[in-house]
Amino acid sequence: MPHLLISTRIRLEPGPTIVGDERVDPEIMKYLGATLFHEKCNDYSEYRTDDCARIVLDKLENVGYRVVSMTGIGQTCIWLLHKE
């Protein structure tokens, strides 16, 4: 899976950072220290890590991912990453 979408809410304290859904490569999630989380009333699960987005982006760069685009929606920042 060459694409990853990560997001975090803008706040004063770091994390959590959402790093993927239940279909993402579990080895990458293990590397990021992410755990699968299911929020009440959602029909999907997502992987989360307590690391702030900067740490997650640094870790993903170390394994070959590059940021393709970034945007903000309300109080949420979203990054799209790609690995060749």
TrEMBL record:
Subcellular compartments: Cytoplasm, Cytosol; Nucleus membrane
Keyword Membrane in record: yes
Any one GO cellular component localisation term in the record: cytosol
GO molecular function: GTP cyclohydrolase binding
SUPFAM superfamilies: GTP cyclohydrolase I feedback regulatory protein, GFRP
Main location: cytoplasm
Membrane is among the record's keywords: yes
InterPro entries per the UniProt record, alphabetical: GFRP_sf (IPR036717), GTP_CycHdrlase_I_reg (IPR009112)
Origin superkingdom: Eukaryota
UniProt keyword annotations, A-Z: Cytoplasm, Membrane, Nucleus
GO biological process, alphabetically ordered: negative regulation of biosynthetic process
Pfam hit, one: GFRP
Protein family per UniProt: Belongs to the GFRP family.
Name of this chain's protein: GTP cyclohydrolase 1 feedback regulatory protein
UniProt source species: Adineta ricciae
